[in-house]
Design a protein that fits this description.
By secondary structure, the chain is α/β, with parallel strands linked by helices. The strands form two sheets. Strands 4-3-5-6-7 form a five-stranded parallel β-sheet, with helices on both faces. A two-stranded parallel ribbon has the order 1-2. It is globular. About 35% of the residues are buried.
Length: about 250
Amino acid sequence: MTALVIESSPWNNNDFGIPYPTSFHPYSDDEVLYWQNNMRKHRRRYLFSFAGAPRPDRPDSIRNQIITQCQNARGKCNLLHCNNWGNKCHKPAELMKVFQSSTFCLQPPGDSYSRRSTFDSILAGCIPVFFHPGSAYIQYLWHFPREFTKYSVFISMYDIRDGKVSIEKVLTRISAQRIAAMREEVISLIPKIVYADPRCRLRTLKDAFDISVKGVLERVGKIKEDMRKGKNDSFAYDERTAWNTFEYHN
């Protein structure tokens, strides 16, 4: 069995993460290309941004530290508080304004490791900053490049929690040339993380649905081939060590 879920489990080798749906459902290749070009043109006033709420009931959360660092960044961070259902965080257009005005978008874990905000920020051409590999790198293996430094920044959540690192300093040290390359990589991911209007069909681009179906078919094909050869390594993987053996660096 292959399960397509918006957040895969480290304990289930049959889970495969697929992107959270955004509010953009293009009806043609031209609409996607037009959107991508618009994201290239945006003036990004802020170095980084964060849209979210603290998690006072979760002692392992780093959101309080991130909010504090954002507030102390002296105009370099755009902070959108999401403390209740009546705020702008639940309005896609308002979220887009925040992300489109920022070079980097912070994506700390919330109630779980992954966030819909990750895909909203990519849609806005904003480079995601992750604090745990479970937020993206070992989730969306079919949709994101394995070389995650091409499109994102990684800062250990433990360094944030222990007060060992300044997000502002880390991001400020990244060269303009590297930022430009990373943003272009992020913008190139947009077709892969959106779900096209089901009433239409993209002609030359593959959306998140196309890529997910392709991944499932390739996995089934590999399992069948392994069975034909008298082996089946597809189910021999020790799921208990799936996240523990993940190596990452930045």
